[in-house]
Design goal:
There is one protein chain. This protein has four helices and five strands. A five-stranded antiparallel sheet has the order 1-5-2-3-4, with helices on one face. Strand 3 and strand 4 form a beta hairpin. By secondary structure, it is α+β, with helices and mostly antiparallel strands. The longest helix is centred in the N-terminal third of the chain and has 13 residues, at about 5-20. It has one domain (about 5-165).
């Protein structure tokens, strides 16, 4: 089995440090055997995806994280799914309808490009109480590029049905 992408580990650690009391009920990196059989092309199968549980009671909003990552256009980000919506370079980083079996309304799904993998910290949105934990250093603007490659866009297109690619309003 492959290892988790470095950027997934960094993101998970940043979120867990910022929100140590958040629920992890729907969190996940590696899939179950049933998930692998049902979704053989899932980025989870290769260590290139992570799910974070929506837990507004603890101050962690998976929706806010999804929208922030979408808008930041980090080159490591392949696509993000949240609340029946998907966003990727293919959609111009606008939200599009996602009609997969799992609407991702209890968690956010984040997939990354392994080719752009790095241990650089992610830009994260301010949200909820931090319980006295110091802010995590954010990457500088110069470290974040607005240029998003289309690498993997064909793979995303193959995974998406025509309905999933219909653009929604921002």
């Amino acid at each position: 089995m492959a290892s988790l992408a470095k950027s997934i580990v960094i993101l998970r650690d940043q979120i867990n440090k910022r929100h140590p009391t958040r629920s992890k009920a729907s969190d996940g990196t590696w899939p179950s055997a049933a998930h692998r059989r049902q979704s053989p092309n899932s980025d989870h199968n290769h260590g290139n995806a992570v799910d974070f549980t929506h837990d507004p009671r603890s101050g962690f909003s998976s929706e806010k994280l999804a929208d922030h990552l979408r808008q930041a256009r980090d080159p490591r980000l392949k696509y993000v799914i949240s609340n029946g919506k998907i966003s990727s370079a293919k959609t111009g980083w606008r939200w599009a309808k996602y009609s997969g079996k799992n609407r991702h309304d209890k968690h956010v799904h984040i997939s990354v490009h392994r080719a752009a993998d790095s241990e650089r910290p992610w830009s994260l949105p301010a949200m909820g109480p931090r319980l006295g934990i110091a802010d995590i250093e954010q990457p500088s603007t110069s470290e974040i590029t607005d240029q998003v490659t289309d690498e993997g866009a064909d793979e995303i297109a193959e995974e998406m049905s025509p309905e999933e690619g219909q653009a929604l309003e921002d």
